[in-house]
Amino acid sequence: MINSSNGMMSTSSSSATAQSPALKTYFKTPEGRYKLHYEKTHPSGLLHYAHGKTATQVTLAHLKDKPAPSTPTAQPSSFSASSGVRSAAARLLGASNGSRALSFVGGNGGSKSTSGNGRVGSLGSSSSSNSMATTNFDGKGTYLVFNVGDAIFISDLNSQDKDPIKSIHFSNSNPVCHSFDHDARDGHDLLIGLNSGDVYSVSLRQQLQDVGKKLVGAQHYNKDGSVNNSRCTSISWVPGGDGAFVVAHTDGNLYVYEKSKDGAGDSSFPVVKDPMHFSVAHARYSKSNPVARWHICQGSINSIAFSTDGAYLATVGRDGYLRVFDYSKEHLICGGKSYYGALLCCAWSMDGKYILTGGEDDLVQVWSMEDRKVVAWGEGHNSWVSGVAFDSYWSSPNSEGTGETVMYRFGSVGQDTQLLLWDLEMDEIVVPLRRPPGGSPKYSTGSQSSHWDNASTVATLQPAPSMRDVPKISPLVTHRVHTEPLSGVIFTQDSVLTVCREGHIKIWMRPGVAESQSTNNTETVLSSSLKEKPLFSSRVGSSSYKQ
Amino acid sequence: MGAAGSKLEKALGDQFPEGERYFGLENFGNTCYCNSVLQALYFCVPFREQLLEYYANNKNIGDAEENLLTCLADLFTQISSQKKKTGVIAPKRFVQRLKKQNELFRSYMHQDAHEFLNFLLNELVDILEKEGQAAKSDPETSSPSEKTANGPKNALANGHHKDPLVTWVHKNFQGILTNETRCLRCETVTARDETFFDLSLDIEQNSSITSCLKNFSSTETLNAEDKFFCDKCCSLQEAQKRMKIKKPPHILVIHLKRFKYIEQLGRYKKLSYRVVFPLELKLSNTVEDADSEYSLFAVVVHVGSGPNHGHYVCLVKSHNHWLFFDDENVEMIDESFVQTFFGSAQEYSTNTDHGYILFYESLGTSNKS
């Protein structure tokens, strides 16, 4: 018995507890260095006991010039140009959807040459005038909405100010998830889901204009958990859904709401008959809100994500299954199980061909919609994978030449405090590297012939693949970015954002971007912010942003 | 304590599992190390059932000699045959016997739960093996493959130690590791098998059990002072060594090495590292059969900031409900509560309740081999 002697104690040499070797402020990729540009966090006075239970999630929100109901942005041409980019970071832990891309490509029609200016231009009005006590806000810009403890914080992405410009406190329960709709027709564009199951929709602009610390002008749904009192886990506007949104809960249910209706109508749903299986129940009265309940699985739904066009909805949960639904038909199309353990996060590629998932098996999983199976496993995290996203702004260096190989760049973050970047070159992994004899992928019997649009109610859910049947990929970059477990990653045109569970956000500038924009100030910002000084609030070099 | 019991009964309502008993164990002064492990073993259903079966078969053989096995069997029988569904039991005889048997556990000092588990399992095996030998009235003459009272013998591949008896304790907990050493000069691979009742894993900050298991099986190079004597080269050579799991056990017990000797301090220190453990697990560092799945059913938790004091509690999954056993007290908890015992991402934290011994049961049907 090897454990009998001194199995209990690990005798080791002096290497005591090298708890946190200093974090580097840059990481290298084949295309160059990503540099830590600045950080965002919450006021440090926040009590820590509130942490732990709720992990911080971040939503990127872009406010346009004015609350213009019919701006040219809605033109078909510019919309389609941007919609490809939109799924971009199509989500951050399921929080936001369709909220990103326009923020950077915005009014400029998405052309790369102008984007730099567009970005900086949007800063002018917002960076210097904002403070915790914002008054007469009518600006535009890109904001980070994030939850910590019992509060929602809003930071200006383009200002170097570490502190948020606005905080909203909730007295009844902790906010845990949020979503922003960048092309909301009328006022309400921000959704907030609470630990208690309650949901609010508000206007972000209105919050920024208000000086108080409470939510203003909010519409309240599922009041006091009247429809469902289990925790919200993930919330999302339906892309192109005209104000429809969905909320996922820990009890395996997902509700569809419409913001045009108030939340007062009677909306009781029949008891779920078979908790093992997917079922949809519609509200009996036309005034009801929520309008439908989708029972998805046993145990928690941990994250949801819509495909860019809103046609498909992906969910991942405690049972380890990824499920993909045809949203308008309310049908389960396909899905499969993790290697083991729960899945925690999911994200679509901009073209809707791939879904990334991450979970408790430490693997980043690439699901192909075409093949309806896992086509690659990313091995590299030393703990659970808590956030995944495709980098839609990245174009592969050889894409102009052959046009044959499709390359995707994606990122993942984990509870190991690391950010990993991956390249996925599809023709490399189409054929599994080590396929055992007769080891072709096993489909469970059933509606195997079901096509995309012909999905029967009992769609095929694939069992966990065997270790040797799935090709493995290795990360391009492994970088320890925080001292705390991470909870999310977002790609923007200029940067990669990482966030940890405790509410610290880091913004890593893409190669070339940082140098051209704030060469002279980067050093000072980094040196002071890295010490995580709570007092760092002087506006270092905000002027340099104005070109 | 009846009140606490009824609270649990109320919480479970008509979902209270048929025939199941949830009893707290009285603490006789720092015996929480023992109580927490006993609860984990009690809710290790195959182990419990076989122990009860053993007790039923053997109790008539006169009130022979009391030993740890009979004391444990007695305790488990006592719990399972209670009229009430919940309550408190005093494991008095068992603890007395334990203290008699091993002076280590005699003091009122804080004891290590893993050391106790290890001692107990080895003790049970010894007792069963002795009984097995005695039953074979004619020892040493029979062929090794002959059946014994406790099942077929299963000779190890390289049995240079005497063919040990495979008892039902072995069948539940024993796995086989293979230690492969490859000489870098002649490329010869030397494999040596070792049996284990649990895996003791080194841990790292912000890692997962999956990652710790990977490190356990990672390749290590033997060089410089630490060369390997290659039988073929007949000399010390540089070599590569790795541990693989040759036969995964039915009950996988994982011990996190949270108590580490720090040379500069000249003492042990508790590592409060955050090590996440999934509710389902697969062993990918096996020689074969990598895809059999395990499910977490018990966690022994060490509460406290140092190695020499503190408290032990036990989380148990029984009939799809999670229960929290803290000596006399038993409470129902939500599955998500298990996550609060992962550890802390920062060194100095108020959270001192850390998962210490994890019990996983194989969902496969490989119990029978």
Provide an overview of this structure:
With 547 residues, chain A is mostly beta strands. Chain A has a single domain (26-438, 470-545), classed as 7 Propeller (Methylamine Dehydrogenase, Chain H). Helices cover 10% and strands 33% of the residues of chain A. Chain A is built from six helices and 33 strands. In chain A, strands 2-3-33-32-31 form a five-stranded antiparallel beta sheet. In chain A, a hairpin with a 5-residue loop joins strand 17 and strand 18. The longest helix of chain A is centred in the C-terminal third of the chain and has 18 residues, at 513-530. In chain A, 51% of the residues are buried. Chain B is of the alpha+beta class. Chain B has a single domain (2-136, 167-363), classed as Cysteine proteinases (Cathepsin B, Chain A, Alpha-Beta Complex), CATH 3.90.70. In chain B, the strands form six sheets. In chain B, strands 5, 11, 15, 16, 17, 18, 19 and 20 form an eight-stranded mixed beta sheet that branches. Chain B has a four-stranded antiparallel beta sheet with strand order 4-3-10-7, with no helix packed on it. Chain B has a two-stranded parallel sheet with strand order 1-2. In chain B, helix 3 crosses helix 4. Chain B starts with a helix and ends in a 7-residue tail after the last strand. At the A-B interface, strand 1 of A face helix 6, strand 4, strand 6, strand 12 and strand 15 of B.
